[in-house]
Write a structure and sequence with these properties.
Layout (H helix, E strand, L loop, with lengths): L1 E2 H7 L5 H9 L3 E3 L2 E2 L6 E2 L5 E3 L2 E2 L7 E6 L28 E2 L8 E7 L2 H8 L7 E8 L4 H9 L1 E3 L2 E3 L3 E8 L2 E8 L6 H8 L4 E9 L2 E2 L8 E3 L2 H23 L1
Parallel strand pairs: 9-15
Antiparallel strand pairs: 1-4, 2-3, 2-5, 5-6, 7-9, 7-17, 8-9, 10-14, 10-15, 11-12, 13-14, 15-16
Length: 248
């Protein structure tokens, strides 16, 4: 028997966190009875409904999207602004973005209905790296780059980059490559603002070993079987390392 939030995530209802919200707000029922307990487990023969609609398991799908600036990482926008989801053609499954790029950012997105993998890729505990190219105003000093790796304090607490590399100058600005193993809201922009460097452009180029490569702007493609295996190994390997460390 699976926990209810995991069952819903596997059925394509969204991330585990989103599925927990569905449960605690009373939108989920099992065999006709509303459940709000997050510890609830569900068996295959039971009937699970969300908002009165039966939940059926979907085939997992995985799409890579090259998001341009001006597109939102949400499944609905009241203002009818363009969505990253619109860049995936003829998709019948209910997918969502794995992590978000803000409206002013661009680059690699993964869209899927595999809630378990999405959770592993984005939760800091699993440490899957995300790589970004960042154009910042000015010329950050070596001490600034060192501070990014040592960490700065934001409202959520202490955050830091895993790797930072200066790439090249562009006029009065500088290109950096920054690698994170977590994904707080607008994290890179806020970290650099602490060091008085404004982000002029931000592009995610990789999640784990999956690189944006030659995927053109506004285009999408299926994740290959090899890429999917690589992502799953990255999350599982990190979990194994952390478990082993905890046992010591």
């Amino acid at each position: 028997m699976d926990r209810l939030n995991k069952y819903l995530a596997h059925a394509g209802l969204g991330s585990r966190r989103h599925c927990e919200e569905l449960i605690v707000t009373g939108r989920v029922s099992i065999n006709g009875k509303t459940v709000k307990d997050l510890a609830t487990r569900v068996a295959a023969e039971q009937t699970v409904k969300v908002d009165g609609e039966p939940i059926k398991s979907e085939k997992h799908v995985y799409w890579l999207v090259h998001k341009p600036r001006g597109y939102l990482c949400t499944n609905h926008d009241p203002s009818n602004r363009p969505l990253a989801l619109d860049l995936v053609p003829q998709i019948s499954q209910r997918v969502y973005t794995v992590g978000r790029l803000d409206e002013d950012s661009e680059g690699l997105l993964l869209l899927t209905n595999d809630g378990d993998l999405a959770h592993r890729l984005m939760h800091p505990r699993f440490g899957v790296e995300k790589s970004y190219l960042v154009l910042v105003a000015g010329d950050p000093r070596p001490d600034d780059l060192k501070r990014l790796m040592q960490g700065v304090f934001l409202s959520e607490g202490h955050v830091k980059a895993r790797h930072v590399k200066r790439l090249r100058k562009q006029g009065n600005s500088t290109w950096l490559r920054i690698v994170l193993a977590e994904g707080k809201n607008r994290e890179i922009r806020r970290m650099l603002a602490k060091l008085d460097h404004k982000v002029l452009r931000l592009k995610r180029v990789a999640i784990g070993s999956i690189d944006i490569g030659s995927l053109a702007l506004r285009k999408s493609r299926h994740l290959t079987a090899q890429e999917l295996r690589s992502l799953k190994r990255a999350a599982a390997k990190t979990e194994q390392v952390e478990t082993t460390g905890a046992e010591r």
